[in-house]
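Fig. S4 source data, part A: sequence.
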Amino acid sequence: MDSPYAIRVTDEVVAIARPVAAGTGPVRVSDRCAPLDEPLRSAAARMRTALEPADIIAAVRSMYRRVGIDPTKTRPSSEALLRRVRKGDELPRINSLVDIVNWCSLETQLPFGLYDLAHVRGAVTLRLGHEGEEYAGIRKDVVHLAGRLTLADEEGPFGNPTSDSARTMVTSATTEALVVVFAPVALVSGVGEAAIRVTLDRVDQYCRP
């Protein structure tokens, strides 16, 4: 399934990140999807003992460092999920679509973004955040964006590889979403595309109307 949005990458970012995006098509998002219980528990259990994909983690950290962000202080969402399960916690449960994306991000160790297409306006660009730019985050007061990898549409910034905005967050009212994998350029081409394919397969299984 193709996204109606081709993500433009600015010159300052093109040698750092290679975003891969796709639209989910029509979805039904449930606050709690019982059929996901066992797959999510199993994924967390596997990742507690599996060898870390050191090359991917290093590439994602390097992507952050290349824009002046310390990834040990501002962690990629993928690594934050891995640290959570390795402390013995389960994956967070938000809703069926967010849960699937967290599952895929945990296993691939690539940071994902997920956005309600009803609240994305016009063309989407991956760029560096401008001085003073910020947005209301999901479960956070404010996310500051200066110098950080930032997705923006015609209304302004709405996502990054660490924390997305409340404006475009996916809820049980979402009927179509945009999935973005923030793949580092340092990784071989196709890694982000493979992650998107797995994600859409799982969306087909658990979130179709």
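Fig. S4 source data, part B ends here. The chain has one domain: 8-206.
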